[in-house]
Amino acid sequence: MLNIHRAMGIHIMKNHENRLINERSPYLLQHAHNPVDWYPWSEEAFQRAKNENKPVFLSIGYSTCHWCHVMEHESFEDEDVAAAMNRNFVCIKVDREERPDLDNFYMTASQILTGSGGWPLNMIVTPDRKPVFAMTYIPRRSRGEQMGIIELSDAVGELWRKQGNDLMKRANEIVSKLEAGVASKPGNLMEEKFLKDSFKELSENFDQQNGGFGLSPKFPTPHYLIFLLRYFHRYHDEAALKMVEMTIEKINLGGIHDHVGHGFHRYSTDAGWFLPHFEKMLYDQGMIMIALAELQLVTGKKIYSEMIGELFSFLMAEMHDPRGGFYSAIDADSEGAEGKYYTWGYSEILAVLGEEEGKFFAGIFNANQMGNYHDESTGRSTGKNILYMEKSVDDLAREVSLEPSVLSHRIERDRKKLFDYRSGRTRPHTDDKILTSLNGIIISALSLGYRATGNSDILKTAMETADFILEKMDAGENRLFHTLREGSPAIEGFIDDYAFLINGLIDLYEVSMETKYLENADRLNRTTIMEFLDTKDYGFFFTATYRNEVGGRKKELYDGAIPSGNSVQVLNLLRLSHLVDDESLSRIAVKTLDSLYGTVSEAPVFHLYLMCALDFAIGPTTHVKIIRGDNHTGDQMINIAQESYNPNMTITATGKQGNEFYSKFMLELQKINDGKTRAYVCKNYTCLPETTTIEEFRKQVSS
Q1: How far apart are CA 698 and CA 692, in angstroms?
Q2: Does the N-terminal or the C-terminal CB of the chain have fewer CB atoms within 10 Å?
């Protein structure tokens, strides 16, 4: 076990071993040797709190969270801190990626209590799991007005012993507020004006100099870009496309892009995308690839295909489990320092590349002898450099009178040398949990990445990933597991797991035309409706009917780092209603949209992926059905349908005999077939005449 922990980059304290030692979560295992008497979330922990009449110290984080590491090293590894915590609390650790339901609930409580939240999220909770106080990072000792954790532990323990009934009353009031927030606001007919309102707000917040939205910190927020591409498709507003292209360009040039190993860091601490928070999240890579693929389909520009290829290479090299599936995240820290793995001394670059080539490369990527990376807290130079570009390769090539391809080849040669050198450094820890929801995002990303590039390796990986998740995350009775580590699945799935996997399977079906992916999407969608749908007020609960934690079942409606499960599932329903010809799915989607009218009307920009679903619901939509004959005409028709960007098009294709699954809804299969391919194009529920020729089909889908 110790060797496993060392491989994960976990600091070992042999004198201590708490109950987390038996967990599989990398985050919980990082704390398994703390002197704090940690429990995992369990009945045992809360029963002990009741028996001993103690409050619970609930700490929620994740394995690649920088400030979680800081707090562990400062406080949770400290004997005096542990003594104070163990004396006053029953202590529970939760991995927010394993239990997003708990994270959502207590984060909402934190926002009610403090007006903000973040990770680590530290809560004081009653023995019946109700929140009393909320904090994020807590220093070991008091700093100014911020109480240290030792003083805090003793103060809360004393307060509980003297005023426990008052604290219970406070907790009940907080839970009442949380439960009141579950109810949907009065509905109305969701309308097109929300699309225009969202665009207006994005336009007003767009950074005209650096791309992206707002000032700092600045997140890539790919779902903003995905919405803008749909807005451009609907209204032909060039400003929408310009925002997307400029944002992608600036992100690609900036320090948030790992120019040596590829992939993108979590966010930029400055407005210009220069100084990143260095962790790499799987969901960012996936959502960025989706935005890149759609942008390539809109513009046809080679640069976006190249970016997809680089991102795919990174994912396969750094985040892919050779047994199947993709890992959740890569840490920002190595050897106790954030960004150490990714930053460069000027002399290092020259030593690896040689003086002349090193100076050339350093000039391209703005590295200097003093270092361009300054410590955030002190402002002092670290002597290290973050690699970033101020101009594109095309612009730089023009300045030095080189062909862009020649300059690109030279940069790529140098990059590989630096990558090989960097690979000898101590690597940041990888959180090797495999999550169904995040792998659903990746299946979508790879499917669309294949569609944009034609790279068959990307399609092959998408199919292998889907097959792996469908097999390993099968919880029986058409249900899914949420997480997998070391070959063992655990925790039954949440709405995000179902919604993102269904979305990935639909995307994969439309590029592979493998029936099993559509069948599985349809099967899991029926489970989602049965287990998660609010049949009274519509929308989807985060947890299934058979799960019920403190505060009741909640709905996650707002987009965050990724779109909400509700937003994704509404679009799933709309697409599947066409793909499997089931109008009842569309009715559920529209009723859910309308039920969210009140919530969305307050701030449509916080629901941009739902706006993508609204765009589909408004139409016009196009549904293509192709019955393939004896020749390759059907495959050519599929390629024609997929070669342009139309986010509101669905495609179904089958062989001339079909199968039992298709026969339920493709009435065209009943027609006499003479070996010819037949295509049926329907627009807004009006079908055009059957066609058997490439030329006529092209006219129908493009008109």
Answers
A1: 11
A2: C
Nearest CA to 313 among 273, 347, 262?
262
CA distance 150 to 168: 23
CA angle 102, 443, 118 (to 5 degrees): 30
| Residue (of 424, 362, 427, 417) closest to 389 by Cα position | 362
pLDDT, position 667? 74
Q: What are 458-479's pLDDT values in tens digits?
A: 999 999 999 999 999 999 999 9
Q: Is the Cβ–Cβ distance between 311 and 263 less than 8 Å? A: yes
- Distance (Å) of CA 399 to CA 52, 402, 403, 415: 73, 8, 10, 21
Query: Looking at residues 646-660, what average pLDDT do you find?
Result: 86
Give the long-range contacts of residues 639-643, CB within 8 A, separation 24 or more: 640/694, 640/697, 640/698, 640/701, 641/701, 642/451, 642/510, 642/511, 643/297
The separation between CA 387 and the C-alpha centre of its own chain, rounded to angstroms, equals 25
Is 1.50.10.10 the CATH number for 193-340+431-618? yes
Cite the DSSP H helix spans in 454-514. Answer: 456-472, 495-512
Distance linking the first and last C-alpha atoms of the chain = 63
401: Cβ contacts below 8 Å, ≥ 6 apart: none
Query: Among positive and negative, which fits the CA dihedral 656, 657, 659, 662?
Result: positive
Tell me the CATH architecture of domain 2-180.
Answer: 3-Layer(aba) Sandwich (3.40)
| pTM exceeding the 0.85 threshold for the entire prediction | yes
Q: What angle do CA 277, 281, 285 make, to 5 degrees?
A: 110
Distances from the Cα of 94 to the Cαs of 134, 178, 557, 652, in angstroms?
A: 15, 20, 23, 43
Q: What are phi and psi of 210, to 5 degrees?
A: -115, -5
What is the Cα Rg of the chain in Å?
Answer: 26
Interior angle at CA 521, CA 520 and CA 524, nearest 5: 80
